[in-house]
Each structure stands twice: as structure tokens, then as C-alpha cells.
Amino acid sequence: MGSPLAEIAADFREAAPPDRLQLLLEFSEELPDLPPRLADAPEKLEQVHECQSPLFLAVEVGEDPGVPTDDQRVSLFFSAPPEAPTTRGFAGILHEGLDGLTVAEVLATPDQAPMEFGLAEVVSPLRMRGMVAMLSRIKRQVRLRTSAETASS
């Protein structure tokens, strides 16, 4: 079907609306903890203010010599409190769907991809805006990291 994110979206759309919340909760529970190098350095994380709960993210882009920038792998890291399952669930979806993809694949993700999950029927528009903002921040950080990398080459 294409990208991992598109496959996750299809799973959500195939589920009945009440089951979509359960799926979201599962993604919330599967969100990995921050690695110590980021957990101990909150200044390396960017807050997504559009989220109703405190959500912070960090993006790293591989630096493999000889690999073109567009083919470098992207790593995503999120921090959201356990008492914010919707926000954690959104982060879990984006982590599962985008972590490990190439720069080109992440940047090619449609900005409105979060609207493809059928979640607008079960969560508030404000929460949906938070997920769209997370994706926007991820793409912006990827662009920042790759333009700095290209400039220093």
C-alpha cells in the first residue's frame, strides 16, 4: 500500500469508531521512552505548543558518509506524559509510521496525513490540530537538519 503511515491509517479506517480509540491507546502504550542522551537534555527537545498536553519531540538525521542526504535515515523521539493517552497515541502513530524512513520519505508525507486516520470522528478538532502540528514540526526539523548538513559539506 505504500508508506508505513498509510498502512496504519488504513488499519484505523477499517476499525469501527469506538475501536479507533482503543487502537490509539495501544499506540500510546507502545511509544518508546526517550534515550538517556535526550531525557537528560531537555533543551534538545522542541515543544509542540498546539498539543493540549505537553508534548516534546526531537528529530535526528543519519550522518552516514557517502549516503546522499535524501537517503539518510530519520530517527524520531517523543516525550509525552502517561496521563495524556491521546497525545501519546498520536506520537506513537507518527513514531511507528515515520521513524527509520529516509529524509525524502518523511518530507514526502502529506501535511494532512493525520486526517486520514478517521480520528476526527472520535477526538476533538483541537487534538487533531495537535497531530498535524507534530507532523509539521517533524518535517521542519528534518529540513533544518538536512540544510545545515548540506551547507557544511
Give a structural overview.
There is one protein chain. This protein has 153 residues and is mainly α. It contains six helices and three strands. The protein has a single domain, classed as Sufe protein. Chain: A, CATH 3.90.1010.10.
Q: What is shown here, in short?
A:
By secondary structure, the chain is mainly α.
What is the CA–CA distance across the termini? 36 Å
The string of secondary-structure elements, in order, is HHHEEEHHH
Strand order of the largest sheet: 1-2-3
Structural class: mainly alpha
Outline the biggest β-sheet: 3 strands, antiparallel
Percent strand equals 5-15%
Cα shape = globular
Number of strands: 3
Instruction: Give the low-confidence spans.
Output: none
- Estimated radius of gyration: 15 Å
Oligomer: single chain
Please report the first level of CATH classification, the CATH class.
Answer: Alpha Beta
Helix content: 40-55%
The third-level CATH topology is Sufe protein. Chain: A
Number of helices: 6
Q: What is this structure's SSE topology?
A:
Elements lengths: L3 H11 L2 H14 L5 H4 L6 E2 L8 E6 L12 E6 L5 H14 L4 H5 L17 H28 L1
Antiparallel strand pairs: 1-2, 2-3
What tags apply to this protein structure?
6 helices, globular, 153 residues, 9% strand, single chain, mainly alpha, three-stranded antiparallel beta sheet
